[in-house]
Design goal:
Length: about 300
């Protein structure tokens, strides 16, 4: 616990001014590592070869040469101002946990994380897309699968995925700690480092179970975890009840209860990313789109 709190404090001191909705670096890298341990060998080679040319994107302050780099590159470029400002709403989807699940309302014009995951796969499969754009699509795909699987990115209560809910992580209190940051950083680090190891190669049966479903299925799943775990633990058992005034406390008991669901989300993210990468780099799935007809 003390190691986690120290890492949390150090990470937050660097990220106080970072954009909201940024899944912790440690968790994003773990998702990328799991994926690369579970893709086909030819997919792994193709991914690494493409990212080796990441300098084509012209972001020297945001390194892009490895899957681990790619896992955090989309957060890094959000600090570059207007050039990538349009990508901000791609990192999350604000689906109200206190209403029936409605992904369509949260994804107007494709501006949500699940729609962008599907889009990046299509870009990678499209033979007509230039290499430079495919490199960016690959980095976005690696990152967004991680984003979708941290629950506050998939469900909230009109509070920007918990960013507006001041919180304490057990005994740790600081002005910048909120409900979202707890699930992004210290809880993710705690869950990933709790034995047994989850950054590993999974069996075919495990991959089939963990990797099943569509992005809509995964969105509903994350929304349910946000409702039943994230907000339920934060609000004393009633996720849609009144918020207490001031800072909510994620007690040590709540943290213990949250570890297993968080571990499972990271496992799902890594194995599902592996599946999507295999599909994106499968030559039999590549296509050339039909030309769009002009409307005079």
């Amino acid at each position: 616990m003390f190691r986690t709190l120290a890492l949390f404090a150090a990470a937050l001191s660097l990220l106080v001014h970072a954009p909201a909705h940024a899944y912790g670096f440690f968790a994003h890298e773990a998702v990328a590592k799991i994926a690369m341990l579970n893709v086909r060998p030819e997919t792994a080679r193709a991914v690494r070869a493409m990212l080796a040319r990441g300098s084509l994107l012209g972001t020297p302050d945001c390194r892009l040469r490895t899957p681990e780099d790619a896992s955090t590159w989309p957060d890094c470029i959000r600090g570059m101002g207007e050039r990538f400002a349009y990508t901000a709403p791609w990192h999350y989807q604000n689906v109200d946990i206190c209403r029936p699940f409605d992904l369509k309302a949260a994804c107007a014009n494709g501006n949500c994380v699940s729609a962008q995951i599907d889009r990046q796969v299509r870009l990678l499969q499209n033979r007509t897309v230039p290499e430079r754009e495919k490199i960016a699509a690959l980095a976005f795909l690696i990152h967004f699968v991680g984003d979708l699987h941290t629950p506050p990115h998939a469900g909230d209560r009109g509070d920007r995925g918990g960013n507006d809910v001041k919180a304490a992580y057990g005994d740790y209190v600081a002005p910048w700690v909120n409900l979202h940051s707890i699930w992004d950083s210290p809880l993710a680090e705690r869950a990933i480092t709790t034995p047994p190891a989850i950054v590993r190669a999974y069996s075919p049966a495990e991959r089939a179970e963990l990797g099943a479903g569509t992005t809509e299925d995964w969105s509903r799943e994350g929304w349910q975890v946000s409702r039943d775990i994230v907000y339920t633990l934060a609000l004393g058992g009633n996720p849609c009840g009144p918020r207490p005034e001031g800072r909510i406390v994620y007690t040590n008991e709540a943290i213990e209860q949250a570890i297993a669901p968080q571990r499972l989300q990271v496992q799902r993210a890594g194995v599902r990313l592996a599946r999507l990468l295999d599909e994106a780099f499968d030559p039999t799935r590549a296509y050339t789109p039909e030309p769009r007809r002009r409307r005079d």
